[in-house]
Amino acid sequence: PGAQPVPASQTMAEFELTAECAEPEACGFLERNGDLLRSEVNAVLLPVEYDEVMSRDGRDKIKKTILQRLNALVPLGRLEGVYFTSFMVN
Q: Of the candidates 30, 65, 29, which has an alpha carbon nearest to the alpha carbon of residue 45?
């Protein structure tokens, strides 16, 4: 309800994200909660504009936001960083 329709010319992206865990408990949480994590990452990426994705500063900002949101979910331990191991924009 209240969602806006997506324009037909919407830019699509495919990526692989890797997280660096400070403690093993954080990695265990990530492995057990993939759907929740994908939802959080999608929530960060959906409103991002093409120009932001294509700039180094924009990608760094995106990674920082994803890291903050994922760390807010991890009950024990924390993540040190997140990295795009592949990122394709169509």
A: 65
Average pLDDT per 10 consecutive residues for the chain, totaling 90 residues: 61 86 95 94 91 91 96 95 87
Please spell the DSSP secondary structure of the chain, one letter per residue. --PPPPPTT---EEEEEEEEESSHHHHHHHHH-HHHHHHHHHHHHTT--HHHHHSHHHHHHHHHHHHHHHHHH-SSS-EEEEEEEEEEE-
Which pTM does this prediction carry? Answer: 0.82
Question: Are 85 and 17 within 8 A, CB to CB?
Answer: yes
- Which residue do the tokens 């994922």 mark? 70
- Go through the chain and tell me how many residues it has: 90
How many CB atoms within 10 Å of residue 70?
23
For residue 66 the two structure tokens come to: 């994803």
